Amino acid sequence: MLQNIKWFGHDSFLIKKGKIICIDPYKLRETKDKADIILITHDHFDHFSLEDIEKIKKDSTILIGPKELIGKYDGELKTLKPFESIDVDGIKINTIPAYNVNKFRAPGKVFHPKKDNKLGFVITIDNKKIYHAGDTDLIQEMAQLRNIEIALLPVSGTYVMTAEEASQAVDIIQPKIAIPMHFNSVVGNEKDALKFKRLVGDKCLVEILKEE
Asked: Which of 168, 182, 201, 202 is the most buried (most CB within 10 A)?
C-alpha cells in the first residue's frame, strides 16, 4: 500500500489504488492525476484551499469534509461529523475527531477546538486501513483505532502534535507504518520528522516521504 501513496507536502496526500483520493490539497504542483474523492479535514486555509481543489478535481469528484464547509464549496459536498462513515464505490471512509488539548492561540483557546468537529479519516481500501490524523494533538479517541496499516501523523508542534507526542500516538495506534506530515510548510521542518523517526525506533516502520 505504501507505493500507492504520494505526499504533496504539509498534510496533503494522494492515494492511488483503483480510485484516486486526495487529502487536504494545498500548494499543489501540476499533476495529471484527478481525484475521484477529495477529503478535507477542516476549513483552515492550508487544508481547505479552493485553488488547489480546482487543480485536482474533475466534474464527478466528490468532496467529503466537516460541516463547517457548508456554504464554502459549490461542487458535490458530503459532510460528516466525527464517528460517522460513508462508502464510495467500495472505499469505506470513517471519521475520527481531530482537536487540540494543549496548543493555544490565546489563554484557554486552542487552535482546533473539539466542539468544531474537525476530522481525521480512516480510509479502508482492499481491507487495508490508512489513518490521516488531521490537525490534532494526542487525543483519547486514538485508542479506538484498530488494525491501522499506515498512520499519517503530524509532528511539528505549535498547532499539532510534537514529534514526542506523535511517537506516543504510535504506541497507542500501533500502525505497521507511520508517515510524518505537517512540516516544511507553515511550521516545522525535516528535523521534526527525523526526530519522530528516532523516537519511534523499531516500534514500526517510519517512512519520511519525498515531496512530490
From this structure: 182
